[in-house]
Each structure stands twice: as structure tokens, then as C-alpha cells.
Amino acid sequence: MKHARSLGANEILQMIFTYLTEVSSLRAYNDIIMVLANMGRALTSADRCTVWVVDEEKQEIWTKVAHGIDAIRLPIDSGIVGSSITTGKKIIIDDVYLDDRFNPDIDKKTGYRTKSMMVIPMFDNDDEIIGAFQVINHKGEKGLFDTRDMERLMLASTYAAETLVSARLTNEIEDTQKEVVFTMGAIGESRSKETGNHVKRVAEYSRILGLAYGMEAKEAELLKQASPMHDIGKVAIPDAILKKPGRFNDEERKVMDTHAELGFGMIKNSDRPLLQAAAIVAYEHHEKWNGNGYPRKLKGEEIHIYGRITALADVFDALGSDRVYKKAWDDERIFKLFKEERGEHFDPKLIDLFFENLEDILAVREHFKDAYEEKVVDKEVNTKEIKILGAYGTRAKGFGTSSFLLNKSNVIDAGNILATLDEESIHIENIWLTHSHLDHISDIAYILDNYFSLRTKTLNILGLPGTIKALKKHFFNDLIWPDFSKITLSKSDTPALSYTEIELDKEYSLNEDESLEAFKTDHTVPSCGYIFKREGDSVLITADTYSLDNVIEMIDARKDINSIVIECSFPSSMPILAKESKHLTPQLLFKSIDKIKRDDIRLYINHIKPSFLDKIAKEIHEYMGKLEPIILKDEDFINFSKKPLT
After folding, report:
1. Which domain holds residue 197?
2. How far apart are the C-alpha atoms of 188 and 20, rounded to whole Å?
3. Residue 64 in contact with residue 164, Cβ under 8 Å?
């Protein structure tokens, strides 16, 4: 059999549906568990797989069928599987005999030698744990499981959970088939940073519109079950394109647009009505009423009603939902677009039916809110946090350079604003620069270039006199980039760009509750760090520096400083380069940090060069003293409240 790690997206999908077909012919609960175990083993190239089920009444876990062992019942918290079930955590272990949770008794009885293990808990629709997948002894050369195996087992776990619930409650395998289709649709969305609830909402919107259009209840239900597969083709799109945070270039857009044909090709040959409907949805949900869609430029009623309905449902949900990379449109803006696109993008009859059934559609949206939307609210409630837009010391694939979002209109440095905020960057009014190096200023140009027509206020650049001078002379000089300070915004009579020189050790008020104060840092050009204060609590951000003497004095003297962000760019094996470029290594950093008298400070580390990330992370662990550091990543949050982290 082909090794699981070498399987492509189409082959994985084919394997899932092979097991789906086998399950569909079964009624016995034990037989179903056995097939699911076979699927888990095949997807992860494991030697053995066991599907465990929770017995809530007896507080036990049990399996009646497992590879190579007889039926077993254990207390719910027993061993590694019990730990996964009681904590809800996924577990990968390279050698179970080094883990205190492992019970070697079964190995002793059977003569089998367990080495590597991976356990994934299974959740039902109410997020209750109903069991776990356990795979043992990877068949690969190293015999170890990794994150790729975990992703495949999570896929098996999702399917298995829905199958077991369905079999236990109704023994109707048709329901299981529907859940697999939904799960596969959710996987396509999750790879592109969508959420599972997106496909749930699109499914419900599609059913409502289908009934309103005049479909029989059975057909509307079929469309509901098929519509989650609309973007299944995304599983075959490379991550570099699918997960790109910014806009696609022309070539990337061409690749991305192939997902409709890819999805159709994956499932078009099935003779099951559900998958036949899903194939239509995948193929035609990007076609437009006016013939300007893709992939076949179908027009009007040439587009199957399934495609027309799913297109409307998908666009409505995409525009109206917050994502980690964009803010939701407000309803009035969406409704205005729909009215404009009536007879253009969308079937005019469906647009009318959409507004006639708007109350039901909005009720669905409310019921299936995204869980992460609540987390966004939590971030707003915690007033002692700021967001890291970029955390690294140079730009590379998946790594953004330095930028700190203080509030909606103020950032420190401009290294990675556009990739994380996108259109929301039009609200940035003030960029407080630490110094003039490119990795800290680059997105100033792109904010103005990309969103010039949307901006209504001048973008003000604040920095030390030497920093402002360098920008004017070497960057916004009509040679490297246009001098936007001479250009008036199209939506107002104000200049696109302005400059403000700041002074060291002077406190600048941002609003009633927030202020910013610059302090001198030790770098190769004029540079400063900042102390950001909000409601009496502060975070100190060094930016690029070599010496920390004045920083340590401030930390010990100012009790309002609860968190510090310090750079660490190079490994300790490069002290000469660090000294000449005025950066820190882990050894140099902690040699200075150990001088801090306080032990109530949160230490965050940023500006690591991505090529040295693993090495520096190990050295940070090796050299750290009383302060346990947190290595920042793009889009992390810095907490600077007095309360301890939980």
C-alpha cells in the first residue's frame, strides 16, 4: 500500500470515500468501529489503530474491536488515551515507555512492543468528547508520528465521531454519509482560514432559498447536504497560495480559480445522488448570471439552480463574517451590493427571494456564530493587550517584520501592516517609528499605494529627527518611492503623508487613556524604543538594540511597566555580527536580563531571524534565568496587565 504521507489530496479523498462505501453497507456497531479503525490506520500508516468509546454512565472507556487485542474496558482517565479524553488534548509520543501514563501490562501479555503513539479525541456536535482514536507504531523509516499524521487522524476522528453518534442513535448510515460530505467541505474551508460554521451557515441558507424557489423538501434537504462541498477543490490548492494573507497576483489567481474544476473532478464519477449534487455545486458556484464567472462562463439558467443558490449563500456569508484576516461588511453594505448585482452576479429571482426570507437567513447566521468571533470580543474586553502584526527580524514566507498595533489608529513600526490588516489599514493615522531600517518602514509605502483612494486622513509618520530625515532623503524622494507628502488625498484636501519629529523621554498622549514615550536605544542608526501606557499599565518595547543598560534601569524604577518586548536576532555563535549590527543574541540578552531586580515582569522576545528560529529558541531555553520568555509570532497578543497570565 502507498505510504499515507505520499498521498495527494485526491487520493486522500478517494480513500475516505472508499471507507465510506464500506461503512454504508454495515449495520452492526462493532463492524462500523472496525472499519473506522481500518481507516485511521490507513490514513496514518500506523501498525495498529483502536477506536475508543466513552461510556458516560459508567465513566469508562471501551473498545470491542481493536487490531490485535480483545475487548477492553478501562476507567475513563486511564493511561494515555484516558488523559487525551479527560483533557481534550491531542497527544503524540515518540516512546511511550518514557511516559508515566503508559501501562505496559498489555504489551507483557501479548508480547507486542508499543513504541510510538498518537491519540486524537473525538467530539460530537455539542463539543462533548465521545471517544478517541489511538494509533500505534508508525510504519515509516523512523517509526514516529508527526503533524501530517495528526492532520490525517483528525480527519478520521471527525468522521468517526459523527459516524458513531449516528450509528448509536439511529443506525442510519445515510446520515453518516451526509456528515462525511459536510466534514470534507469543512476541511476545504479550514485550509483557507474559513471556519466549520461557514459551511453550516451556507448549508442552511441554501435550504431556505431552495424551499423559497419552489423545491420539494427532499430536494432542498439534498442541496443543504451537498452545499458544504462547494470549495472541496481547495484541498488541492498549494498552501503558499491558499493561505497567502494578501491579495493574489494574476498567476496565483489563475491557480486559485482552478479549485472549482478540481472539486468537480474529485467527485463527478460518483453514482450517489448526494455526491452528484455536490459535484454540481463545486463546479458552478462561481458562475455568474451575466456569464462573467468561471470556470465555464455559463450564463443565466445555463447555471444549475444548485450552483446559483450556493453562489448567493456563499457570498453572503463570506462578506458578512469576521475572519482573522478581515472584518465583516455591515449588512447595509452587503444588501446594497446584492441589489446592484441583481441580474449581474446573481439570479434576480433569488435576490428577491433572499430579501423576502431575510429574517430566517439572519436567524441562521446568529445561531451558527463563529466561535472565534467571541474571542475577538474577548480581546476588546481585555484592555491591557496589544496585537503583534509582525514579529520577526526579516521578511520570509510566513514571517512578517516588526509592527505593533496599539489601537485602531496607532502602530509602532510598519513592517507587516498590510498582510495582517489589509483594508483595515486605512484607519491607521499615526506610525511611530523606532528607526529607519527597511524592515521597520516598508509598509508605509504599500498602505498609501494600495488604499490611497480609500483614505480620508493624512498618514502621519512620527520618529526621531534622524529617522524622519532618512525617510525624506532616501525613501519618499520620488526616486525610490513617490513623495506622498506632496500628493493630496482624493477624498479630502489633505496631504497623503506628513512627518512629525519626536523627542526622547517625552510623553505623548494618544487619547484620554493612552500615551507613548520614546527612549534611546543602541543601534547603527538613530533609534528609540517606546513605553506604551494604557490606563496606568505599561509595556516597554526596545526594537533593535545592543545595550540594555538604560532599559534595565527603567524597568526597575517604573512599577507601571509590567511587560517588556526585547529583540534577539542572531544565535549566540554570532557575537561579532551581533555587535557590529547592534543586535542581541540569547547569551547577550540574558546576561543583561539577569541584572533586573524585579521578578514580576513578563518577557516577550521578537525580531528573531527566521532562518535561526529553531536554534535561537533552544538557546533561549538554555540561557533563560528567572524570567520565562515568550517568543512572539505574527498576530500574537502582548498582555501587559498586572494580573498573571493564565
Report:
1. 176-373
2. 18
3. no
